[in-house]
Amino acid sequence: MSRLETRGLVIDVPGRNGGDPLDFAVLPGQVWGVLGPNGAGKTTLLHTLAGLRSPRLGRVEVDGVPVSRLRRRRLAQCLGLVFQEHHDGFPATVKETALIGRHPWLSPWQMETAEDLALAQRALERLDLAPLDARQVATLSGGERQRLAIATLLAQDPGIWLADEPTNHLDLHHQVAVMRLLAERAAAGRSLMICLHDLNLAARWCDHLLLLYPSGEACWGPTASMLVPEALERLYGQRLASAEVEGSRVFIAVP
């Protein structure tokens, strides 16, 4: 499985001068959560890690190779990204969209094999979308479209998973189901980095946290060492109360 590493990385956030260099490694089996207020650079960070944006300084490596040197097909075999918002450029069914996840593994002009079709079908079943496989994507609700994006990444099955607000638009049941799926992929040896707004989901499911402040300041480490109320209150500009529920820390905003 693949290792994602940053070396002196400074992301290029418009209107912000510099920022703390990021030097961390997301190892196979780890689930990293990225926390921070709006505008702190969470989405910019994921896009930079995926090679979609150039950093201001430093570099991103996959298994020791700079992302900028990897061919796009090879990079897509190693790394996949779930975007926060989805824009479909052409009409497609749910099943056709899930099959896009198999494209990095096909040769040019090669048709999907029976195995590819089976992998896409299993991904749809895993995200409770199999009954909708013939539906046009444009007819889906926001939550269904989000689950389809995750199903497409599951069909792709790269070594590194990047997900920007993967629980966006989801009801409570599917929030838990998606976080459980992500934890299962980590247990299977994948490396995961997830941007989240829900502090409690991060506390429950992530083993490492990266805190991004609007100023460009950043800190990271094992989740247990990062769940410091003072640091979190400064991160969000919000008073917090915490309690333990069934063995997990839970945080509540205090008016």
Helices and strands, with pairings:
Blueprint (H helix, E strand, L loop, with lengths): L3 E7 L14 E2 L4 E5 L6 H8 L7 E6 L2 E2 L5 H7 E4 L11 H6 L14 H13 L15 H15 L3 E5 L7 H16 L3 E5 L3 H7 L2 E5 L5 E5 H4 L2 H8 L3 E6 L2 E6 L2
Parallel strand pairs: 3-8, 3-9, 6-7, 7-8
Antiparallel strand pairs: 1-2, 1-4, 4-5, 9-10, 11-12
Helix pairs in contact: 4-5
Q: Outline of this structure?
A:
The protein is 33% helix and 23% strand. The chain has helices spanning 42-49, 72-78, 94-99, 114-126, 142-156, 172-187, 199-205, 223-226, 229-236; strands at 4-10, 25-26, 31-35, 57-62, 65-66, 79-82, 160-164, 191-195, 208-212, 218-222, 240-245, 248-253.
Explain what this protein looks like in three dimensions:
The chain is α/β, with parallel strands linked by helices. It has one domain (4-253): P-loop containing nucleotide triphosphate hydrolases (Rossmann fold, 3-Layer(aba) Sandwich). It contains nine helices and twelve strands. It has a six-stranded mixed beta sheet with strand order 6-7-8-3-9-10, with helices on both faces. The chain has a four-stranded antiparallel beta sheet with strand order 2-1-4-5, with no helix packed on it. Strands 11-12 form a two-stranded antiparallel sheet. Strand 11 and strand 12 (248-253) form a beta hairpin. The radius of gyration is 18 Å and the shape is globular.
